[in-house]
Design a protein that fits this description.
The protein is mainly alpha-helical. The chain contains nine helices and no strands. Helix 8 crosses helix 9.
Length: 152
């Protein structure tokens, strides 16, 4: 296996560590404390610059409340898998958003909404607002057309 393939796996696993840590609202410092390492080491794991060993990955999974398999979900072992996602601008934008503070705050707030009707309305509102900003969102035109029909 080439060094580049290892790097893409490390980057993928690291990004999943970061995503889960942020989703549960844990700081790098807190995770580092749980693991008995420095927060700089956590940063290196999350960036994929340092490879996470099996026992350390097990400890991270326990600390973040997930199974080890979580870190490999949707990774098919092909180097092209990550490269393809990085080059697909929609996936790249979604990944960037999920890693942002605003994205995580939005996900946390949305996940607390239990009423399905309110959740659907929220999604439609987001589509409409992004459409107004000149962003193309799948089905945004359909949502706008639907709103126009209902307002007449």
């Amino acid at each position: 296996m080439s060094k580049k393939a290892f790097t893409s796996v490390d980057a993928y696993v690291g990004s999943r560590v970061r995503m889960q840590r942020n989703l549960i609202g844990m700081s790098q410092e807190k995770l580092a404390e749980l693991l008995g390492i420095t927060f700089q080491q956590v940063q290196k794991y999350e960036k994929g610059t340092n490879r996470i060993g099996a026992s350390r990955l097990y400890a991270i999974a326990r600390g973040l409340g997930v199974e080890i398999s979580y870190f490999f979900e949707q990774y098919d072992g092909e180097e092209a898998n990550l490269e393809g996602l990085e080059q697909d601008s929609e996936h790249k934008d979604v990944s960037r958003f999920l890693a942002s503070r605003e994205g995580l705050a939005l996900i946390r707030a949305f996940s607390k909404i239990e009423n399905p009707k309110i959740r659907r309305s929220f999604v439609e509102l987001a589509k409409t607002l992004s459409s107004d900003e000149g962003q193309t969102v799948p089905e945004a035109q359909d949502a706008s057309a639907s709103q126009e029909r209902h307002s007449h």
